[in-house]
Amino acid sequence: xxxxxxxxxxxxxxxxxxxxxxxxxxxxxxxxxxxxxxxxxxxxxxxxxxxxxxxxxxxxxxxxxxxxxxxxxxxxxxxxxxxxxxxxxxxxxxxxxxxxxxxxxxxxxxxxxxxxxxxxxxxxxxxxxxxxxxxxxxxxxxxxxxxxxxxxxxxxxxxxxxxxxxxxxxxxxxxxxxxxxxxxxxxxxxxxxxxxxxxxxxxxxxxxxxxxxxxxxxxxxxxxxxxxxxxxxxxxxxxxxxxxxxxxxxxxxxxxxxxxxxxxxxxxxxxxxxxxxxxxxxxxxxxxxxxxxxxxxxxxxxxxxxxxxxxxxxxxxxxxxxxxxxxxxxxxxxxxxxxxxxxxxxxxxxxxxxxxxxxxxxxxxxxxxxxxxxxxxxxxxxxxxxxxxxxxxxxxxxxxxxxxxxxxxxxxxxxxxxxxxxxxxxxxxxxxxxxxxxxxxxxxxxxxxxxxxxxxxxxxxxxxxxxxxxxxxxxxxxxxxxxxxxxxxxxxxxxxxxxxxxxxxxxxxxxxxxxxxxxxxxxxxxxxxxxxxxxxxxxxxxxxxxxxxxxxxxxxxxxxxxxxxxxxxxxxxxxxxxxxxxxxxxxxxxxxxxxxxxxxxxx
Length: 603
Prior knowledge:
Number of helices: 21
Shape: flat
Largest sheet: 8 strands, mixed
Strand content: 15-25%
Oligomer: single chain
Helix content: 40-55%
């Protein structure tokens, strides 16, 4: 899209809050941002002013933009987060480590509440956590069951009593399902469990010590040892208590350190005045303003994590906007503080020190990762003369043994990193025998048929397709491209023996230095496609037992199948065996061995 068209679109921008979406020449989303006033924010990108290097690089790639008007800026913040998660734009700060930590849930909506470990937060109970830094939630639940006899199973409590289960007889549950306890008595135990999970460990520790002493006295030493281990676990939890922090303080502490190109974000989690753990995030700076980037990062993080009552931070952001966002998500007010002194300041300084140290020590690792991923993609484009930056690369491989259980794999790398949510596998349906060329053609036909259809959302158009193979495989797939009039996708093949790269631009293969990050990235995606295909093949192949295959051969009954299994151990070994080895199996002989061998060759 020409600059004149963009200029006309800029004139039509509204003075409303919303989300803007920047696209490159291929229609790929490269940046998503939110704005209080769309007209003012989007126009800033196209003004002839000095911009940070990354912002200018992003602007140079813009060929078009779209926008969505929202009722408020808070709605724009939430929608921005949704789009970033969906499109993973190249120039946004991305929360790639979206690992969720476990919580302990008390199912308070149930008549007889149970406790469980979960990683998903809903508004249907009371949650304690997150637990990180080596804390084993299952151990804590086990203590709660043994000390307070709270149920951990999901068996429904009905009007008709059930037979008490093993947990009741082991003293881990009061069996409300068997009507062994009243609702009022059970509720008192639930209150004690809530107090325990809130950090009041003294009662539980006392009861555990009493039980340990009793088991030791009864010479039940294994049980005594188990209780001793649980006491030690509680002692470690008590050491996490911050003595000068009020017990009712639930806070996340965030500190940011940046060198202009990379950013380290350190987080400390405290609940009920107890340190739950810490995390470090390594980020490559996005194309937006620093405060907007951090706000976007926090929004991504808290989409799946609990928002505490208080957030302590050393970074500037739009406090009021984030407070409104948090209120919509939790239904309660959020406290945002930047303390100057006291224990909260000490915790903030601790987090800031962690972020700075990580940035200083890990900067070379971050740069190396960039060289191996996005940097390798840019270098590959240059070395092979690709028509576009290969943001999404797809690699295909075929796996079978003697034409049996033929499968294909599609592995996807985004900006040089494996994107396992996009992997696909194919079971070959139309090809007879072991014909890898025809199998590749079937897989690529099925995959490319998704382009331009409603399914393209699930199968985004790649910029580069890599085939595991040489000139023959490349030619076979090129025929599919021509037959389906596929355009806008580069195609190459990587031959394993010499690591030669075949392209459509010349007859001779291209060799890249084996130390080059671009070749190493191609090797990674090729090897990953092979691994993924082999894994799928084995899962299918394992379902075909020896009997189901051999019973198709005349003259092979149960005894002879058993004899083959005894000698070779698996169907793969039978399929690979030569005629002489087959004939040595009890009751087989040369004539039947030749029949077995011929049967597998014809598969």
